[in-house]
Amino acid sequence: MKKFIIVLLSFIFINDSLTQDLKSLAITTKTNREFSYTDKKFGYFYGATHTKTKREYFTGWNINMKRVLYDYALFINKKVLNRKNCTAKVFPHKLERYYKNCVEELFLFDDKPILCIKINTKERKEIGIKILGNLDTLIEVNSNGFLFKPKESEEGLILLSTINEGKFFTNYDIINTNSSSKGFVFIFGKDKSEINFLLNDFRKNHVRWLSERESRMSKLISETNYFKCDNEIIEKGVKWLILTTDQLIMNQLGWGIYAGLPWFNDYWGRDLFIAFPGACLVTGQFEVAKKILLSFSKFQNNDINSKYYGRLPNRARPDEIIYNSVDGTPRLLIAIYEYVKYTGDTTIVKELYPVIKKAIEGVEKYWIDEKGYLTHDDADTWMDAKEKGIRPYSPRGNRANDIQALWFNQLKISAFFAHLMNDYNNFSKWDSMANNVKKHFLIDFIDDKYNYIADRITLDNNKDFKLRPNQLFALDLIDDEHKRLDIIKIVWSKITYPWGVASLYQLDEEFHPYHEYWHYYHKDEAYHNGTVWLWLNGIAMQKMIEYSQKEKAFTLFLNMMKQALFMDAVGSLPENLMHYHEKEKVGLIVVVLFFKHGQTQSI
Question: What is the rounded distance in angstroms from the CA atom of residue 160 to the CA atom of residue 163?
Fold first, then answer.
């Protein structure tokens, strides 16, 4: 018995220590900040601490890409709790709002379609909740609570009940109960039977569920990825980004990584595999990494009569799978290679070798030119915005420099895998194809008039020398160290700012500095023609460090941590930043359109 008590006390001490790691990351704010949480399966909640979000269309609780709850208001003794006057604490695992006479907690659980709103008050009071927005069809009222049909979801029901079993007192559209009920819970299910089961399960186990969620997240930053730094901003920022990136690893349509919340709550091939090393391999989540590779590979296009034969999806979601991107497929091959390097697990190569071969067969059948380049449509790279879905705002067809670099790496990696599989014919063939791409690249993408790489070769074989950051990914194809250094200096001095890398040189005639400047042009005209993209910071910093420019790279890294902690979405990095001019000062203002944790964590 004594031994059991010692073990139990040790367990409590360890878990308290782990919880302290999350508590130390709390960000306290009295001004409006956005936040998001996921259930690691197919649900997330996106909101703001005090007032409305900048992206109200996405506000609320979302299940499988369908919003099932917009928002709610809370009451004590029939008086509304005014969020504008609260002090909010945002943790990686939950939100707390402090009012004069109570504390509100909002949190989700891993793998459970349940949203919990806890109300902590010292006195015995009447607590209430009012549903705001789109739960507008009341199906029935029963002993468990109020059953609604979500307006925006074709399938499923929502139950509003209490955390502890309690009685309800309705007052118009406000649902009241005693404070002994501890708060309210929303449960989503396909029918009443499933919801009733989840409610009973919740009341028995929700304390343990939350503890397990806290423990998982704490271990990720205190054990698996222990990190200590004498700079508090960097230490806290890195830990936050590890956790907000991890929350994007989902099991919505098989295993994958959301491209970003709240806008991209689905899987995008390129985004997924850009994020993959930082989200899964660097963090030591090798089993999850393997599941993602195997799961997403199943979406490969197997229709030999389709021009997308052999490709991985540009986007995979429950209602649609599309293949209009050229870079997701080589990035999958690179991800498999990185997984093998990190883990030593070569068994996955045998399992995915048919996928590897088919990825090259599709290119050979539909997309290869006489020089061995991988061709593609104008908007099939990551710079993919189109006017009304037709005219590309940033045309990069039909041979972009970064795509040739990805294709070169795909061929080299595939040759490596072929050798591993004793497939020596394909080993020789693919290795030769890769070398051929490199040989032609040094001729076709270089011009002595410019000290940087052409961004693309057009369909009519002209070199397009728009100064863009894509050439950083093509340095593998340049052997001349002086040329490489020239390219890095140009990119760093012309389109890299202390806060990120721009998508186009500011003196280019197509440069659009404002992403949301609706009075003058559509935002997508600026999307890849001037806005800063933070996912590019990784490759820019890497190249500066390789050429002994650590201090400059550090400035960029530190500013990213400051953005994560002090600007807009808590613990997150924005997808884009945009330029602004004020009294001859040039700077940036954050536009939180979509916070792509996944992409930025890949640095």
Answer: 10
C-beta separation of 496 from 504 below 8 A: no
| CA distance linking residue 226 with residue 247, whole number of Å | 18
- Max intra-chain CA distance, the chain: 82
Report the chain's C-alpha Rg in angstroms: 26
**Region for residue 310 given its phi and psi (left: phi exceeds 0; alpha: psi -120 to 50; beta: otherwise):** left
Taking the C-alpha atoms of residue 158 and residue 167, their distance in angstroms, rounded to an integer, is 19
Instruction: Rounding to the nearest 10 degrees, give the CA dihedral for residues 76, 77, 79, 83.
Output: 0
> Which domains can be identified in the chain, with CATH numbers?
28-208 (2.70.98.10), 368-479 (no CATH)
pLDDT grade for 520, boundaries at 50, 70 and 90: confident
> In this structure, which long-range contacts are made by residues 432-436, counting pairs with CB atoms below 8 Å and at least 24 apart in sequence?
433/372, 434/408, 436/371, 436/372
Supply the pTM of this predicted model: 0.92
Please name the residues in contact with 25: beta carbons below 8 A apart, sequence gap of 6 or more: 91, 92, 236, 239, 240, 243, 571
pLDDT in tens, 4-56: 333 333 333 344 554 678 999 999 999 999 999 999 999 999 999 999 988 88
